[in-house]
Amino acid sequence: MRQVFYSLLFVAFLTSCTNEKPQHISPNGKIMVEVNVAEENSFGQPSLSISYKESDKVHLLFDNLLTGFKTTEQNLTDSLRLVSISPAVEIVDEYTMITGKRANCINHAVEKVYSFENQNNETIDLIIRTYDDGVAFRYRFSSVADGEQITEEGTVFPIAEGVKRWIQPYRIDYEGFYSLTRSGLPDRESNRNRGNFHWTYPALLEPQDSIFALITEANIQRNQSGSQLMNTDDHTMYRVHLADNALPFSGTWESPWRVIIIGSLADIVESTLVTDVSEPSVVSDTDWIKPGPVSWIYWAYNNGSNDYQIVKKYIDLAEEMNWPYNLIDWKWNEMGNGGDVKDAIQYAKEKGIKTLLWYNSSTSWNGEGAPGPLYVLNAKE
After folding, report:
1. d(CA 251, CA 142)
2. pLDDT in tens, 197-222
3. In the 8-state DSSP scheme, what is residue 22?
4. Distance between CA atoms of 284 and 277, rounded to whole angstroms?
5. Is there a contact between 276 and 131 (Cβ–Cβ < 8 Å)?
6. Is the CB of residue 207 less than 8 Å from the CB of residue 219?
7. pTM for the whole thing?
8. Which of 82, 130, 153, 377 has a Cα at 20 to 30 A from 312?
9. Contact 157, 65 (CB under 8 A)
């Protein structure tokens, strides 16, 4: 059960732009976000500057991090002016996890909502939270016409050449490598797609010596879209590229959270920021969920799950190591050499080992030649 407490820190008095940049500081004072807006009575694209304080020194990690969204009917990116800032609210959200980094977690942040409007009086809210270990922000806006579609996100992370980064070139299976590089250009031309370079989350950067920033997304809901990072020949600007380039929406719509975890490598590893900003589980009875170690055939035998004798060896391994589970990976529908998948499940059951089966989601992205099994769960046997 998550218990959320909100407390009002102070009332914002700004209803139009001033010469002073709006600031947003984390509870411990180490992370600061400045919201850069157009001059009073002018329109432009809002951006963020994110800094990190270490001892008495302030390090600028991101400057001119662009924000906004576009739809088929609205330009909510580069023609905006700030109209209001909400009161700062302290969020204290205590929750428990049945697995992961820790059992008891605290979602502690300071949140403000920055409201903008374009020249057509169409509005977008930029919701920003500062944490002791990072920054999270998302967008909220409403449709203005029937059949309206979201076409582009305007979020752009500036990453200068020379900055250390560990980013995986995009692959549909997310099974690439995170090699150290200092450039926004990929090592292989295969990452180029019509003049664009695509990258997967998470992206780990070292913008200052021993200060790291990990970029990812969180809390993707059914009516939203996952995304990638994309840069072009201007390879210092990493845009959030939506997987759906025409996402239908109506009424009020919120984006997933854009998350930047900031600090030492220990801070990155220990952070629960992704689950902090995510909606709580709707599953109330979790007693049946029993996390545990598993023997997995894939690492040594990529196609091994089609061989009953090899699968048996991994079931024996799970028994020997006192692990509760064995995972039978792809191609188990083709299993032979002395038995099929039902035989393997029965063998595991006799050993006291529970079986997990890999299954292809059978969605449209697979294309021809997708690994099996396919469609076997569409009908009950």
Report:
1. 5
2. 999 999 999 999 999 999 999 999 99
3. P
4. 19
5. yes
6. no
7. 0.88
8. 377
9. yes
